[in-house]
Amino acid sequence: xxxxxxxxxxxxxxxxxxxxxxxxxxxxxxxxxxxxxxxxxxxxxxxxxxxxxxxxxxxxxxxxxxxxxxxxxxxxxxxxxxxxxxxxxxxxxxxxxxxxxxxxxxxxxxxxxxxxxxxxxxxxxxxxxxxxxxxxxxxxxxxxxxxxxxxxxxxxxxxxxxx
Amino acid sequence: xxxxxxxxxxxxxxxxxxxxxxxxxxxxxxxxxxxxxxxxxxxxxxxxxxxxxxxxxxxxxxxxxxxxxxxxxxxxxxxxxxxxxxxxxxxxxxxxxxxxxxxxxxxxxxxxxxxxxxxxxxxxxxxxxxxxxxxxxxxxxxxxxxxxxxxxxxxxxxxxxxxxxxxxxxxxxxxxxxxxxxxxxxxxxxxxxxxxxxxxxxxxxxxxxxxxxxxxxxxxxxxxxxxxxxxxxxxxxxxxxxxxxxxxxxxxxxxxxxxxxxxxxxxxxxxxxxxxxxxxxxxxxxxxxxxxxxxxxxxxxxxxxxxxxxxxxxxxxxxxxxxxxxxxxxxxxxxxxxxxxxxxxxxxxxxxxxxxxxxxxxxxxxxxxxxxxxxxxxxxxxxxxxxxxxxxxxxxxxxxxxxxxxxxxxxxxxxxxxxxxxxxxxxxxxxxxxxxxxxxxxxxxxxxxxxxxxxxxxxxxxxxxxxxxxxxxxxxxxxxxxxxxxxxxxxxxxxxxxxxxxxxxxxxxxxxxxxxxxxxxxxxxxxxxxxxxxxxxxxxxxxxxxxxxxxxxxxxxxxxxxxxxxxxxxxxxxxxxxxxxxxxxxxxxxxxxxxxxxxxxxxxxxxxxxxxxxxxxxxxxxxxxxxxxxxxxxxxxxxxxxxxxxxxxxxxxxxxxxxxxxxxxxxxxxx
Lengths: 163, 671
Fold this sequence. Notes:
heterodimer; A: alpha+beta; CATH 2.40.50.140; 2 domains; 5-stranded mixed barrel; 3 helices; 7 strands; 29% strand; B: alpha+beta; 6-stranded antiparallel beta sheet; 21 helices
C-alpha cells in the first residue's frame, strides 16, 4: 500500500517537475524587458541587443514614411521628456497617429535607434479610460487629409465631429 | 424611470444582505420563521435587479443621454440591436448585467430546490446571495450605471465600432453566463462543507450547472476568438492577451473539475481535490474579472478603473482565505474511501489529465502575472508574450491530447497487458499509419512543424480510439437488438448520454487541436503596397488590385472598399473586398477584413492603408485549417447538449437519493 502511494507521488512530481521546467525555460528564453521611454533612458545598464518592449507616445509630426517604400516608417516616441527614435517595417495599425500611445517590441541598436519588429497601439476598447475620467475626445477622424477619398473629394463625407 | 432603477438597486442590496444573514441563522438555529422569511429574498432581489435593468435598457432605447453611461455608449443613430447590446458595452452596465445573470441563476436554483434538502440549500442560497451582495455593493457605491449628467447633451458618443459586430453582441453574455454559472456549484460546495453533508450530493445536484457553465465558458472563448479573427484584422484568433487568459484559465480548471468529479461519483475518491478545484474555478472567475476591471496588467481590452480593482482583490482574498480555512477544518470528513491501484488504469489517467490541465492553467497564470511579480521582486518589468505560452503550453497540450485517446479505452482499476493490447491495437496502428503517410508530404523544418506533425499523428490516434468506442457499442447493440446502424447508434447514445456525449465533445476537441496546429505551422502572409492594376502571388493564388470604392453607407458610416480579384489556375476564383469603415463620432477607422474560408485554408485580406493616388496597402494571410476550429466548437456544443439532456433514469436515481436523505435528516421545516 505504502509503496503504491510513493509511486504515485513520484509520478505526479515528475509531471509537475516537467511543467515547472518548461515554464522556467520558457521565461528565460522568451521574456522581454518592459520599459517606458524615460525608464529605458535612465537605465544604468545598456540594454542594447536585448529583447525589449517600450511604451511611449508618438511625437507630434515625427512620423516619416519612405517615399519609395511606403511600409518603411521612422518615428519617435516620448514619455516624460525622454524620447527615442524608432524604425519599423510593416503595416501600421489604424490607431498609429501623432500623440497616440504605442508599444514597440524589438531591439535597441548601438546607434540609439530602436528597431521595432512589432508595433502595437493601445486598443480603442480600452473602452472608456479617458471618457470615464471626464476628458473628452476631440472626436475627429485621424489625419483627415490622408484618408480623404481620392478624386471624389469626400471631405464632407468624413466630417469633423466634435462633441 | 432612472430614479426607479437607482432605487431598486438599493432595495436589492438591502434585501440580499438580509437574506444572506437570515438563511444562515435559520439553518444554524433551526428557525423556521426566519427560514420562511429568508426564502422570499431570492425572488425579491431578482425582481429588483430586473426592474433596474429594464430601466437601463429603456434609457438606451429612448436615447436618454442624461445618463452618463448611455451617453458614453450610444447615440441616436445606433441600431436598435446595438442599443440593446450597449447595455454590456462598458464597465457599469456589464457589472449590472453580471448581477442580473447571477440573480437569475439564483432564482432558478431557488425554484429547483424549493423545500428540498433543507440542510444544504439554505447555505447555498446564502453563499449566492453573498456574491450578489458584493456586486450590488459595487454597482451602488462605486460604478453606478444611473449616474446623471446635470445638463443632458444632445447626442451620445456612440458605441465603439469594433463592438458593432454580431460576435461582440453574443460573446460577452456567453462568457458571463459561463463565469457567473460557476457560482452555483461553488455555493453548493461551500454549503456541503458548512453543513457537513460531504457525500457527492453537491456534485450531483450541481452537475448540470457545472456542465452548462462549462459549455458557455467554452463557447464564450470560441466566440471571442471568432470576433478577434473577423474583426480585429490581424490574421489570428488568439494572442495570449491577459484578458483572453482570464477567460481561458477558469475553462481549464473547470474541465479538470468535470473530469475528476466522475472519479468521486464512481470511486468515492479525490474529495478534497474536487472541493479545491471548484473553489479554484470560482476564484479564477473573480480573478478574471479583476484583471479586466483593474487595468493592473497591460492588455488591449481592459476597462481602466483602479479602485474597482482593489475591491475585487479584497473579495478574492476573502474567498481564498475562507475556502482554504473551510477545507482544513473539514479535512477529517473528507477522507477518501478508496485509493489508486495502478498507474495503468482509468483512474490514474484522470489524475494525470487533471495535473496536465492544471499545468496549462498555471503556466498561463504565471505568464499573465509575471510582469507584476518581476517588478515587485527585481524592480524591472519583464513581460512574456505568445512565444512563452506556445513554448510551454504546446508540449503540455500534446500530452493532454494523448490522454484524451488513452482515457476512454484504458481499463478501470488496473489494465493488464492483454487488455492494453486489445484496446490500443487499432488506435496505435492508426497513429502509425498517419505518421508514415504524412512523413513524406509534410515539411519538418522547424519546431512548430514538428509539433504539428506530432499533433496530426496524435489526432489520428485519438479519433480512432473514440470512434472504435462508438463502433463497438453500435455493433454489440445491433447484435442483441436487431436494429439498423443508425438506429443502434442513436439508441446507444441516447441510453448513455453522459458517456457518448462526452466522447462527442472529445471529437470536437481533436478537431480544434488539428485546426490550431495546421494554422500555426503552415500559415503564410505578406503585405504589398499596390497601384491600381498591380498583382502578386501567394501560395498559388494570384491577387490583382482592381479598384478602390467609396460608399456613404449610412449617415454615420463611410466605407472605403478595395476590390481585388483572386485567380487560381488562370480562373477567377473569388473577388475580395476588404474595407475600412469610418464612423461619425469615433476617432479611428475600423478595418473590415474579407475572408474566403474553406476546409483546407482561409484566404484572409486586409485593407491596411490607402492613399490619395488610389494606391493601397494590402495584407494577405493564408491560414490553413482555421475552419476546423469553428467546426470543432460546434461539435463540442452538440456533444455537450447530448450529455446535458435530461435523463429520466438519472432523475429517478436522484429523487430517490433526496428522499432517502430527507428521511435520515428530517428538515427543520417539517419538524
